[in-house]
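Researcher: We plan to redesign the surface later, but first we want a full-length starting point. Tokens attached.
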């Protein structure tokens, strides 16, 4: 009876937006999520271990290109605070974790950050809190990490402490859908029905469509299903691209034609490989977990093989093009257009552009410049070895004419495709960004 009172009080608090939410990990996922809750009227405490990020937020400066300084300023003026201090957990009713979930070099889950969060929160745990994991990982992660700590503290899950999982669908750089706009549908789950109801109540404040599933493991699996579906289909279309190119068939025309079918076909496009924190990483969570059931994930392994090989195939095509013309020189000037892994984003994690740069450099040695208008902090030590040029340079005819070639790796909207193709000798296009049918534009 007493527990039910707790439960309905918590529900009421969430409905009236009186709950305090702590979001742990203020990156591509945690920061927009925090802003969405602040916008809807909640008090949000953003916690991150990275002092530079906290300092930046407290100076009203965004470090994510798709979030403006003004958005940060407005949030701070409302009910947002940013801190490195975990003791704020003891003042919080809801704690959402959004830390990285990478894989190691053997493609095994490396969940040190989740482990670190759990070890830090345990001394601030208190009754009636709701814990939610938003990170992508293998089915079983939330329960493996959180239940032992709850049990150790003699808390009764679903009665006086609550656990949920809701996978993130944020697509940084996507101008149509975002958590801040509230038009992403969200899958929610909970350890018990009470847990699930609270998670559902919470996200209903910021999202139009909520889809509850029967268990946390199902929700964790759903997220992997979405990303594996993408990885495998990208792998498939990358393979088909190789075949169509040899047959002198334009795959983009074929994809457009196939897309006229009103059912059973969803278009995917060839590209330079996959990047970011999701598609190259997440499928391996399931491969790793499946091994514990003596199962193999053949599609995942094959897609990853095909996608990972794309930078090599692309540079081989470029090498062959110049070999035929017998004019490889060491003084060649080259521009790589787009360095982030995806359109209109500044995210360079696992970007295939990094491997393409390395391979092109091996062939052409010097003078390889990068133009990416979204990568603002070019003084970052990770970028020291690269020569970045301003996008204004791509408006200069003489500069473009002096290039050996321009290679489009990431098709940002800010590039003037027409101007570049008209003024550059050769363009290699990994994204079908150039719509011109000029003979100097080669799809690779
Ligand atoms: N980026 C995407 O497009 C995307 C989409 C869907 C799901 N996800 C998932 O969301 C999760 C977060 O990804 P992200 O892209 O936001 O990562 P990110 O690297 O951009 O941000 C994570 C933040 O967590 C902080 N952090 C790490 N360990 C911490 C700790 N112990 N304590 C406090 N802060 C800590 C980091 O400093 C960083 O600011 C991952 O599981 C990822 O797979 C990401």
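Model: Full-length starting sequence:
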């Amino acid at each position: 009876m007493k527990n039910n009172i707790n439960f309905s009080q918590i529900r009421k608090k969430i409905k009236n937006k009186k709950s305090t939410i702590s979001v742990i990990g203020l990156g591509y996922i945690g920061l927009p999520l925090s802003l969405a809750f602040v916008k809807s009227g909640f008090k949000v405490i953003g916690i991150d271990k990275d002092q530079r990020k906290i300092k930046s937020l407290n100076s009203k400066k965004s470090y994510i290109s798709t979030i403006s300084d003004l958005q940060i300023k407005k949030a701070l003026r409302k009910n947002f605070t940013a801190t490195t201090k975990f003791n704020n957990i003891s003042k919080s009713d809801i704690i959402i974790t959004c830390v990285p979930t990478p894989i190691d070099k053997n493609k095994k889950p490396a969940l040190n950050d989740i482990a670190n969060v759990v070890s830090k929160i345990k001394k601030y745990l208190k009754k009636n809190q709701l814990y939610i994991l938003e990170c992508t990982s293998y089915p079983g992660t939330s329960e493996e990490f959180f239940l032992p700590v709850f049990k150790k503290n003699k808390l009764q899950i679903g009665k006086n402490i609550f656990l949920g999982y809701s996978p993130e669908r944020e697509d940084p750089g996507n101008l149509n859908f975002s958590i801040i706009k509230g038009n992403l549908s969200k899958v929610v789950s909970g350890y018990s029905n009470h847990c699930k109801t609270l998670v559902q109540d919470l996200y209903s404040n910021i999202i139009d469509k909520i889809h509850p599933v029967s268990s946390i493991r199902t929700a964790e699996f759903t997220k992997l299903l979405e990303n594996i579906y993408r990885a495998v289909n990208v792998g498939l279309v990358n393979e088909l691209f190789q075949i169509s190119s040899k047959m002198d068939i334009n795959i983009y025309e074929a994809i457009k034609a196939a897309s006229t079918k009103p059912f059973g076909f969803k278009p995917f496009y060839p590209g330079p490989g996959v990047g970011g924190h999701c598609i190259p990483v997440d499928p391996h969570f399931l491969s790793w977990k499946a091994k514990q059931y003596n199962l193999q994930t053949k599609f995942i392994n094959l897609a990853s093989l095909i996608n990972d090989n794309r930078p090599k195939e692309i540079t081989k095509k470029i090498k062959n093009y110049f070999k035929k013309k017998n004019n490889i020189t060491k003084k060649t000037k080259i521009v790589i257009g787009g360095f982030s892994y995806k359109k209109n984003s500044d995210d360079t994690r696992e970007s295939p552009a990094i491997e393409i740069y390395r391979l092109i450099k091996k062939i052409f040695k010097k003078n390889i410049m990068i133009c990416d208008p979204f990568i603002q902090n070019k003084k970052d030590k990770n970028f020291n070895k690269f020569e970045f040029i301003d996008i204004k340079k791509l408006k200069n005819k003489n500069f473009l004419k002096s290039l050996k070639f321009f290679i489009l790796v990431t098709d940002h909207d800010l590039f003037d495709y027409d101007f570049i193709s008209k003024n550059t000798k050769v363009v290699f296009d990994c994204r079908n960004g150039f719509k011109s049918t000029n003979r100097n534009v080669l799809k690779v």
